[in-house]
Batch of 4 targets.
Target 1
Amino acid sequence: MYQARIKIVLFYFFSAFFILLNTFFLVKNKSMIVNVLPLIFFIVMLAVYAFDALLFLVIFCTPISLQLSEIVPGLSFDMSLPTEPLLFGILLIFIMKSIASGKFDREIMTHPVSMAIYFSIFWLFVTSCTSSMPLVSFKFLLSRLWFIVGFYLLTAKLFESGKNIEKFIWLYTFPLMIVIFYTIHRHLGYGLWDKQAANFVPNPFYNDHTAYGAALAMYLPFLFGFSFTKIYSPKVKIFVHIVLGILLTGIILSYARAAWLSLIVAFGVWVFMRLKLKFKPLFIAVCVSLSLILVFQTQILMYLERNNTESSANLSEHISSMTNISSDASNLERINRWSCAIRMFEDKPIFGWGPGTYMFNYAGYQLTADRTIISTNSADGGNAHSEYLGPMAESGIFGLVTFLILISVVIYTAVHTYSRTTDKRMKTIVMSALLGLVTYFVHGTMNNFLDTDKLSVPFWGFTAIIVAADLYSRKVIQPESSSDTPK
């Protein structure tokens, strides 16, 4: 009874204190900043008593997160709110807990995919030390660390024994649908088939229609997988079909050509895996194709230069414009950025210019002949538009190599896990995660978004799904195989 009274007294005391403090700031400074305190208190309580829920909250908030510059223009720095401050806090808690307990899940930490990630982080650290702008590079390294800790290491632990994977997918998909409705609503004001409007209507949630399209492309394989698998009830599948239709509408109206192309390639990978084709003939075919492209590159370029189809609202013309390197400003600007990245790499082939520094250094490598109508005089228009050439310019040859190693190990793990497991649910999940990542691997040839929370959630989260499924499938198979051995 006495303890109950103490709790009631404390409740009224803190409530009165909060009201008085809020009134003081409102009257004195005309500020409502104190209203943020209950939210901060709620987040702290989640971190202490429900750490998993805090991570889920970050995933849910990611599609609808806003850049600080959208809220407070004119600042010299930027961040994604509320996700990046929360991820920084999660990183600190992870470090403190790891130091206190002295351990984390050994199987996750020593997995080949994890080892490939450590290699890439190590090289990012090295090239941050040799960077032309160390402060920028170490900030880039820090953000990469909180993405990996939050969306790979901790989510892989959450996915242990195959749990929480569907929850992870839906926690991003539901708010993503909010963004789709918002985008279509804005698009209606300009006309749904206005291609130019598609470039900016996802703002402020996605600052670029290509990032918006990339996110949609990554989640579509899961919706297709959930739609056609037989393990879900008819009511669930009806709901999934509705969501699938919404995402398909969103990606069509995004006019993101790279996202469309990535889905075509993902479909090809799906056919390859479903037909159980041998890897060796495919590898030989790819090598022969690349060799033919190199041999006939002059003729191919001449053919492409004859294509003068501009990107437009007409879907067939918009698709055809993908290969227009004679007049399409978007394509030409990408070539300009890629050319700058290659020239930067040639000057610093080992250590590069430093992670995150491309946009500050490529101005001096921009040739007049390569500039387009959307190029800027100060070359402050963004990144290298490539997940492959960007790291090569910023972290040298090993920046590219570490990323390619990571991709190779993830694909190898996914293919073998898919072949090994007999669980239909896990097969669907692994296939969907692999195809989702394939869309980004393809998309990465034309854009790079791994420095943002919007694409880091699916990229590292899908990687965590594959690792968790690999570990789970091994545990399931080992007891069965051991029971067959004679005693």
Target 2
Amino acid sequence: MDQSIELLKKTAGALPRDIAYIALVLFVLFIARIVKDLLTPYKLSEQLTTADNPAVGMSLAGYYISVLIVCIGPLRTAPSAETVPLWKDLLITGGWALLGIVLLNAARILVDKVLLTDFSVVKEIVEDRNIGTGAVEMGAYVASGLVVAAALQGQGGGPHTALAFFALGQVALIAYGRLYCVVCRYDVHGQIEKDNVAAGVALGLNLVACGVVLAGAIAGDFLSWEHNLMKFAMIFILGAIFLLILRVLIDFLLFPGVRMDKEIEEDKNLNAAWVEGAVLAGMAALLVTIL
């Protein structure tokens, strides 16, 4: 009984601080919307409400999810109330979260310009209302959010190490995305441009799975460049190989007698894309936990 009362008192005592953090996250979401509006070559409100564009909705949903993921990094390393006053901690945490928003928008531009090079992403999303392209952007946002959150989390280092591992993570994410396109038995970009939603969902969820691996490779305290770079390289290389091999095994284990690539390319089977991506993302989390 006494322990329950103590726990209740402790929870009630922390409530004002918790409310302050929630208010901070809502403020960060507000700033994220403004930044997104400024950097987007089309009017978001018009596409979301007047045009009812589902491709824009998918991309924007991924953006907001990634912003919330980014906030986790600074919040996990926030000092205790006994160490730093609340106002100072809110400023520090908010500053890191705002840096994360900038990095997220940079990551989206990088993915559009370096990974999705065979067509105009803006045209596909706005003019063609291509949900497959929106799914790729959604997956890229979530994956980048995981990378940014991991780069901002942990003790040691500083802005320079966070920026360095964010850059490494984005290069690795794009490299994996390109490798995925190579090993697929169909033209991934071509299928997405042809409005094959399954192809877009499969690529987007594969990026999320890679993002999970990269988060595990980056997260943790910064001990030294040698240690953290070696850890990054080992987990990413093993994780990328594991994901690509697992994608082949899924055909035999979960879809016996069926070729996943055929289902996605010829049948445009969205179910196959969801199952493949969900299993890969879950196995990526398992791999990171084991490593």
Target 3
Amino acid sequence: MQTQKISEINATISKYRWTICSLLFFATTINYLDRQVLSLLKSDLEVTFGWNDVDYGNITSFFQFTYAISLLFAGRFIDWLGTKKGYAWAIIIWSVGAMGHALSRGTGGFMLWRGVLGFGESGNFPAAIKTTAEWFPKKDRALATGIFNSGSNIGAILAPLTVPFIAASWGWQMAFIIVGSIGFIWLIFWLLLYETPQKMLEKGKITQGEFDYIHSDVEDAVKVVEGKNALPWYVEWGNLLTYKQTWAFTIGKFMTDGVWWFFLFWLPDFLKTQYGMTPPQMAIPLAVLYSMTMVGSIGGGAFPMYFINKGMNPYAGRMKAMLIIALFPLVVLATQYMGGYSFWWAIVLIGIGASAHQAWSANIFTTVSDMFPKRVVGSVTGIGGMAGGVGGIVISQVAGHLFKFYDELGQKETGYTLMFLFCAVAYLLAWAIMKSLVPKFKPVSL
């Protein structure tokens, strides 16, 4: 009892884990800032290159296809190379890809550089989730994930406030170059500040109390250093697919990630189609919408703690929270009806749905570190991330063809009605499947 109290006191002396969380937050902000540039310049580029909705859908789908396939290997790559080097290479590649858009002279060029961007960005979430597993105990991981995942909202807020201005002042090429170069600034801080908790303890950067708190889970108390006597990677990687826990995460990502992709890539077009807005006019509404999603990301990450503090195990508390979260996207069904009174109704209702996605995302990512050993967290995250990317491809292709079809009939808003219907019910369907596959907490022992 005395030792526990001393450990708790020491844990308050150093809180370096939150410095690490802030690095993940800024990386995720840059990640989403880079991928948002294209959607905000869609109207201008349509005029410059003569695109239609199918062309734009193909470009975004190629990004998602590359992102999805790369995710399958990115997680394994991060597990093999280590978090520090793996994350560094990821942001170097995606920053080069983001800047490379400025060299494009047609649809093929945009698809090429979009592919490089997707290849690099595939390393962000496997690396971030693995870092969270290394630096936080299970009870804090959803909150930490919610905080760094809120960076995606900040990126989505900053993009409409800055990209149209840069493009209007210096041209669309400079928008890609300036935004893409920010990743190299982050890289300097990452290389200077990041090490594993063990190395930070040896350097005196964290206290023994913080180190003990980070490794306070039962399995960590038995064995802090993982990875020894592991199976060959190709055996262990294939072995992961035999577990229902892997499939629960994978199907959950497949069914819900596409909703976020849809909001990210098609909301500017929706505001243009429904309300005749130009990119500068969209800046404030989109900033408000994505500000709302920050609440969902951080609040959703903290929400399971209410049930965990009442005695539920982390997985049970997380699943109960996710069921409640899955109900909120239903309000998206009223978007077009209420939006008829004011576009702000549409912004608020979509904002609630997008906020629910971020809350859902913070928790579904954390189910991986709840049930799998740390050494394979990156691999499982990559497998599920790939499935989420495939779901995004399906959504982009369906949306592009649906909007083109109804646009030719003069009824493009009908296409959005159908897409909003899917966005509203996707989470409840995903939760039901996940719960049926893994009804109770069952950790995987490899």
Target 4
Amino acid sequence: MKKIMKMPKIKFKNFRPKINEECGVFGISNNKDASTLTALGLHALQHRGQEGCGIVSYDGKKYHSEKRFGLVGDNFNKEKVLRNLPGNYAIGHNRYSTTGGTTLRNIQPFFADTNTGGIGVSHNGNLTNAITLRKKLVDEGAIFYTTSDTETIVQLIAKSKRSKTIDKIVDALFQIQGGYALVMLTQNTLIGVRDPFGIRPLVIGKINNSYVFASETCALDIIGAKFIRDVDNGEIVYIENGKLNSIKPFPPKKIRPCVFEYIYFSRPDSILNGECAYEYRKRLGAELAKETKIDADLVVPVPDSGNAAAIGFSKHTGKNFDLGLIRNHYVGRTFIEPAQKIRSLGVKLKLNANKSSIKNKKIVLIDDSLVRGTTSHKIVKMLYDAGAKEVHLGIACPQIKFPDFYGVDMPTKKELLAANKTDDEICKYINAKTLNFLSIKGLYRAIGFENRNISYPQLTDHYFTGEYPVKPIDELGDNKVTQLSLLSTASNN
């Protein structure tokens, strides 16, 4: 087999207006309720992936696996399902595919038998050399079962000539590039790995004698686990015989976590660098207010992503905060997809104007980010139709001009509004009275850095700057993000 399998064409008929993190990972060791606690952890991480979920457990002799489409609470809420996952060790995964490739075999965790025993892998992120590696492996005789870059990692581990599993993993890690957080399970060993720049998040917790890995601290809270620390960038942490062990095989690099964990991805109650994401987001709104001079009556968030920033904006300016938009939390893709007439309703399925609050008011509308602008355009129109006198749009982050390579569901540069239009042109397209983006300096001040270090940014902020910590090896052309995420993530991560 000389050629790589052709991927299905990618369609954007139901594209998401927001950018989305690709997935959430969880793992626990040495606990008789391992699978139940993993299901709870995944439930807390549901915002990171909603199209599929899976758990792999180990009972000391055998591995067990359950994978399902849909939400954790709809699939792992029955005792008989969890009875199929016995053992004191378990790992889990929530999947957020971009488009295409929605098949059960692409839902993680993945499992494989190697010459040193079985291994299960949950992966959050994207490899920037996935296509190149996959072609090489296929040319050497490897047979791939899925379309995910995670399987490339599994194949590299299985192919390694090293004698110990941990050494096989190190061997594989030296061949991959990108942003990734991995939680892996071998015989009575739980392993957590974070990429050399720490782009994707991974934390360590402990409940009684059980160690836990998770994408965010909110997954520790739900099971009563204590937060210990973050997995360091470039670190491999493995739990063996109840003890935490650490190795750092990579040359040291300064950490550069993804800036969107602070802006949008992480749940508001999760801890990032010692502080709740909610507090960072309020400061983002306050910084936007410092940079903005608007004569307005009311500050209105785009729920729920703009709530904290709008509170920060309101407190700094002294302008009243109100819920001028009401969100319907019970709209799922299964309802939206079937009929074009229903799809055409668009944002009205999820949001509705609170007319009593906004009528005859000058409104500052606050959102966390602006991607394609289609949703903002519809929301502004909705507010005007409901009687708003003026609508000023404030975005609590800088202009998004560049696509992502590290596991984020984001459009190509051609589809990013700020990459193709000036601020004035965007304002006219959205039909707002004024449009203001937070500056890069304001962003860094809100997160805790006085200024962006030009020689070495403290965050992975390529969305705004085009400065990528890991350059892609794969040749991807203009469609780079879609192609990369979907040799791999059509499947996904």
